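User: Can you help me understand a structure? I only have the sequence.
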Amino acid sequence: MSENNMSIENDETTMTRPRKTKRTLLISGLGLASAALVAGIIVLVQPPASEADGPTPLNIERTQAKRGDLVETVRVQGNLGHGASRDMGTTLEGIVTSTRGSGTVVSVGDELFRIDDKPVTLMRGKLPAWRAFSEGMSNGNDVLQLEKSLKSLGFFKLTADTKFTPATKTAIKYWQKSVGLKQDGVIEHGRIIFAPNDVRIQGVKAKSGSAASGEIISVTGVNKEVGVKLDTSARSLAKKGAKVSVSLPGGINEPGTISSVGAPVEEEGGGAKIPVTVVLDKPEAAAALQDMPVGVEFKQTKAKDVIQVPVSALLAQPGGGFAVEVSEGETITLVPLKTGVFANGLVEVLESDLKAGDTVVVAK
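Assistant: Let's start by predicting it. Here is the structure, written out as tokens:
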């Protein structure tokens, strides 16, 4: 029998060698990063055998070499909530006479709060309102936003554009009548507030009876989202649009999508973290949940369609390099290889006769 062949005494757990061969566990300083974690790798060193040594029983397990994508997985804790809040106020002078309650969802055309018992209304748009709306004003995207909002409310009948026309003035009058304002076709600066989406009242910053100066309410988005602080070593996982899995209470895993990735932020005590925002693909899955910690699983394909084996199957060879033991019937053969990328306890096999489906021996 060659030096690379050994007989099997028990096919399940015990291997007997014709001469004593020691397997010594080492923590290898390969310095391989698995996303945010840098883990030492346990490998087996096979020193030269002595002819005088007797057989040594060794507990082993077997698994098959597989072909497929090598995927790195990183699990971190995030916080489920409505995301960061932002403040809203008005340039109108007067007294705050009422505000909406915390948790109220405000849509386009709905009242946010009242000044001198007249409503300040939410309209749809990304561009902030920066001037009054009236006949003779210059063209602008703020006019386009206003006309689109009035059209969605049923007041503007034409195709929305950037021009303030008599049709715009007429639509404003209809809207003013619906909310109890003077029907003059003029919207004073501060009477409407643009936001790209519906908002949720987070809190009230100016109580009823206060002067309408400064911020009056704070708002958030309507749907729950997950905020995560990711180690900078896992930067490659933080890509806008990438898919993740969010672990909710009750063992429920919901798919999510990375909606934003911020610049690294220095944390107290040192070290930088990357702020990542995840939105659930099915927002209703978390609608009834309170703000709470949740698990988030990030995945990244490190190598596509490659042969892979467990890291614990690697044998560091005395002359350098690695090999694995391939079990076939009662024969075990040492098969050399080169290692590629590592992920989740698996290693890519390069430049080897090892094939997918081969049975390899791993440390137990």
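Now, to help you interpret it: The longest strand covers residues 292-310. Residues 1-57 have pLDDT under 50 and may be disordered. Let me know which part you'd like to focus on.
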